[in-house]
Each structure stands twice: as C-alpha cells, then as structure tokens.
Amino acid sequence: MPRLSKPTTPSRRKMSFGDFGSLTKKRPEKSLTTPLQNHAGRDKFGRISVWHHGGREKRLYRIIDFKFLPFEGKAEVVAIEYDPNRSSFIALLKMPDGTKKYVTAAHDLKIGDFITSGPIKRMTTASRSKLADIAIGTQIHNIELQPGQGAKIVRSAGSTAVLSAKEGKYAYVRLPSSEVRKVLLECMASVGQVSNITHNRIRIAKAGRSRHMGIRPTVRGKAMNPVSHPHGGGEGVNPIGLKHPKTPWGKPALGYRTRRNKRTTKFVVQRKESK
Question: Please, what CATH class does the domain formed by 219-275 belong to?
Fold first, then answer.
C-alpha cells in the first residue's frame, strides 16, 4: 500500500508516497553510476523540442544491464535500491566472478536470493532465459524483441506479460496492453513481475511535487490564442468548435490511431483492446 502523508497542509491531505519498505540501501554503487545531464527539453540550439520538461532535481544515472547474458553459476542479490530514473526498483547483484551489476528488480525479490541467466532448471523469480526454455503460462518481463538486443518491453513498475503459446520459431506473448505479439523463441525474458507494483496508486497532490520531478505546466489548447492552437480563440467558456479534437499541429487527437510502423505489423497477432 502507498504511504499516506500527515495532513499538515490541504495538499498533503491527499498526498501519498511509494511503498519503499522493501528497499535495503540508500546510496547507489558508485562504480555503476554516471552523471545525467538535464537538457530541460531543449535541443542544441536552445529551442524547446520537447514540451513540459525542465526544472527537476539533480540525479545520477544507474547503469542497468538489460541484456543480462547467460553465465555460469548464480548471482546473489545484495541490495534492492530506489532508482529515480525509472518507476521500478533495481537490484544490485554480486556476480560469480566478484563483479557487481544492476538489473531491474522483480516483485518479491529479496536480499540473499540467487538468480541465473541461461537454461532454466527450476523457474525462480527474476531468472532469465530464452523464451524457448520458459514454460507456457509463465509471467515474464524485460522481454527482448531481437536476440542479444537487450530488454525493450515490459520494464515499467508492476507490469507483466504472459507467455501464452509457442509455434514454429515464435512465441506468442500477451502484453500488459492486451496486445498479443509474436517474439522469436531465441529472445530472452525474465521470470516474474516487475517490482514496485503500487506505483500507479501514488497521488502527486500538488504542483510543486511535479516540478521536482521535472514536469512543467501544461496549458489547455482552449486557453490559447487561435494562432497557437486549433482549439484556441473565442470569448469566455466555449467548446473547441471542431468536429474532432486536434493536436497543436492539426493532427487528429484522442482515439486516432497513429501507428505507422508497417515493418513490425506482421508480428502483431491481436491489437490491444480499445477502452
């Protein structure tokens, strides 16, 4: 459950924080961090290229091993840590050769647990293997889309996919969005669910907290001038005046399908269910 704050101000009455009771270390491993520069949504010319970015707290980037290639022996979990750069927690591993490595932590992973990468004899939480070696019906995360590429999908807090079938050289994976997608059996995935499952229940409650996270204010299109947005203009409170809502650049918004990647359409077996 998220932690509630004491209602010392009106905004804190509704504020909640993540459940960090499972974390075991505050400071990151120094050898696995690197400085992270804040560009505030600006390009090399200083112009805003990404809206609503800027003004966040300084933070170090934790170097995560998303490939976690097969190795001999077992890696021991020595710490579960918070990572400000992602919604999930991360696990610090001590590898059989004595080196240390960060990976995305799985739900219920604890200090002292051992995880493997390679052919699975017994499926344990966070162990990593090829989809060909994982049993049908297993919950998985950190899934590759090309062999050796590293995890690309199902990486955010609390998310999990299900290995639903195998046919030929492909596995059928049901993603959190309800989309069913074909993935090569040679691709690797981790067993279990991503950690920090209560992340989606956190309530920000006040604007200042969003600013600390690097999120700048968003202005409604209706509040702008006609030159700035298709919804702009008019006197007082009025509708957008269009048959369908549009983006600031005149493209259809809210429900319009924007997928244009025809190269990978053949891998989508079932589109996600519309809400």
Answer: few secondary structures
Q: Which residues contact 42 (CB under 8 A, 6 or more apart)?
A: 48, 49, 54
Concatenate the DSSP letters of all residues of the chain into one string: -PEEPP-SSTTTTS-EE---TT--BSSPPGGGEEE----TTB-TTS-B-STTB--PPP-EEE-B-SS----SS-EEEEEEE--TTSSS-EEEEE-TTS-EEEEEPBTT--TT-EE-BSS-SS--TT-EEEGGGSPTT-EEESB-SSTTS---BS-STT--EEEEEEETTEEEEE-TTS-EEEEETTSEEEES-BS-TTGGG----SHHHHHHTTB-----GGGS-TTT-TT---SSS----SSS-B-TTS-B-SS------GGGGGGEEEPPPP-
Per-position pLDDT tens, the chain of length 275: 788 888 999 988 989 988 888 899 889 999 999 999 999 999 999 999 999 999 999 999 999 999 998 888 889 999 999 999 999 999 999 999 889 999 999 999 999 999 999 887 788 889 999 999 999 999 999 999 999 999 999 999 999 999 999 999 999 999 999 999 999 999 999 999 999 999 999 999 999 999 999 999 999 999 999 999 999 998 888 899 899 999 999 999 988 888 888 888 889 888 887 66
